[in-house]
């Protein structure tokens, strides 16, 4: 019967995708039912987009476009320097064009740096998928949108930073309304956007929708986990919805005069804490990142950059001395001091503040963004040219509550 064959194909695909191998392990139906790539959360909605397109950083001369469809589809992006577009990209994995999926991430490559492109996304429903007979249904498309590619050689970069939104999407909308008219190249989401991960709808409603409405259809955002994103039954699905330069939860990139290092600081309590029930292992992961940071900080990109900025959700100092923060301090502070970073930007404590360098502790300033409650929420504006890096922190009433300025030493 067609349906059973179809289901068995899906099972085979899932086994190999999960690296389970051919030893006969059969995935439980519950796992199949929960695979977000294959299973529509709401078939009754039909063939519609569940999210608008949202841009993720990929690199100079490239851009990654993401979006979510309701039904498994074949999806692509058409793009070009004019509104007639003219070029097309889809995603290919090991010879297979990505298809019969819903969560899309398509990287447009060989773009001109610092150039404005227009684009439109398409999803063509696949109604039946047999060996030699694939049946397409209706195609849906987005409106015509635009973006500007990053330029690594640019003399300037600017970004906005949000943290600790904790499942309050209206906070994203409100804080973005305070940014004024200054242009910005990207938005950095510095962890704890959620309380804990429940499902795809939470991601759409509490993050993707306010971001797309505010900027993300035309300006990319980058995301790093906070400790809260490591919790809940949907925690392991998160990477399917985001793209960054390394494909891991920690990464680095250079944009204009700034080299950015992004660290995944993990949980705040010991891995052995009963509340984690034995399913986190962050000491080892922080140590892995320490070895990686040491390598990155010896790279030409890091050494040559006019400014060196670190994003990490949990700060290395000015915290509650719990295990996770203290382990961050132990693993990363010697590296930051030795390799002379210019600025560390964090969140987590829900107490915004600008902390000057402290001798024999941290030789670098630590900026901590605010919390999730009204009157504590902040947005930061970071701007650098080849001579000066400036940060301004605004409270949710629009008042500036912190500034920091660094003059280039290199
Ligand atoms: Fe946190």
UniProtKB/TrEMBL annotation:
Coiled coil: none annotated. Residues 54-125 form the Purple acid phosphatase N-terminal domain. Residues 160-352 form the Calcineurin-like phosphoesterase domain. InterPro entries: Calcineurin-like_PHP, FN3_dom, Metallo-depent_PP-like, PAPs-like, PAPs_N, Purple_acid_Pase-like_N, TAT_signal. GO terms for molecular function: acid phosphatase activity; metal ion binding. The keyword Signal applies. Keywords: Signal. PROSITE patterns: TAT (PS51318). Pfam families: Metallophos, Pur_ac_phosph_N. This is Metallophosphoesterase.
């Amino acid at each position: 019967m067609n349906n059973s064959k179809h289901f068995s194909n899906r099972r085979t695909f899932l086994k190999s995708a999960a690296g389970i191998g051919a030893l006969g392990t059969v995935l439980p139906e519950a796992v199949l039912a929960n695979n977000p790539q294959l299973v529509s959360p709401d078939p009754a909605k039909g063939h519609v987009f569940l999210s608008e397109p949202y841009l993720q950083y990929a690199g100079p001369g490239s851009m990654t476009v993401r979006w979510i469809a309701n039904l498994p589809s074949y999806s692509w992006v058409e793009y070009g320097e004019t509104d007639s577009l003219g070029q097309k990209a889809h995603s290919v994995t090991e010879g297979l064009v990505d298809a019969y999926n819903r969560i899309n991430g398509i990287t447009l490559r060989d773009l001109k740096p610092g150039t404005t492109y227009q684009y439109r996304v398409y999803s063509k429903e696949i109604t039946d998928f047999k060996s030699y007979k694939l049946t397409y249904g209706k195609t849906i498309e987005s409106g015509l949108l635009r973006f500007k590619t990053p330029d690594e050689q640019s003399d300037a970069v600017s970004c906005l930073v949000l943290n600790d939104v904790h499942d309050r999407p209206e906070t994203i909308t409100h804080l973005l309304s305070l940014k004024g008219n200054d242009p910005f190249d990207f938005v950095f989401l510095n962890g704890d956007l959620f309380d804990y991960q429940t499902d795809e709808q939470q991601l759409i409603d509490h993050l993707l929708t306010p971001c797309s409405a505010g900027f993300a259809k035309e300006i990319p955002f980058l995301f790093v986990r906070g400790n809260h994103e490591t919790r809940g039954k949907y925690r392991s699905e998160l990477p399917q919805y985001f793209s960054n330069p390394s494909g891991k939860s920690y990464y680095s990139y250079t944009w204009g005069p700034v080299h950015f290092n992004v660290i995944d600081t993990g949980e705040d309590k010991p891995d052995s804490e009963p509340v984690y029930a034995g399913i986190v292992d962050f000491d080892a992961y922080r140590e892995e990142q320490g070895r990686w940071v040491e390598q990155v900080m010896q790279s030409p990109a890091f050494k040559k950059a006019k400014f060196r900025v670190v994003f990490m959700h949990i700060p290395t100092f000015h915290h509650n001395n719990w295990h996770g923060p203290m382990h961050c301090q132990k693993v990363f502070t010697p590296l930051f001091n030795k390799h002379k970073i210019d600025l560390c930007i964090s969140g987590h404590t829900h107490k915004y503040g600008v902390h000057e360098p402290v001798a024999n502790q941290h030789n670098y300033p630590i900026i901590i963004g605010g919390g999730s409650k009204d009157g504590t929420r902040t947005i930061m504006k970071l701007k650098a040219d080849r001579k000066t890096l400036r940060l301004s922190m605004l409270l949710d009433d629009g008042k500036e509550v912190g500034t920091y300025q660094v003059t280039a030493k290199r």
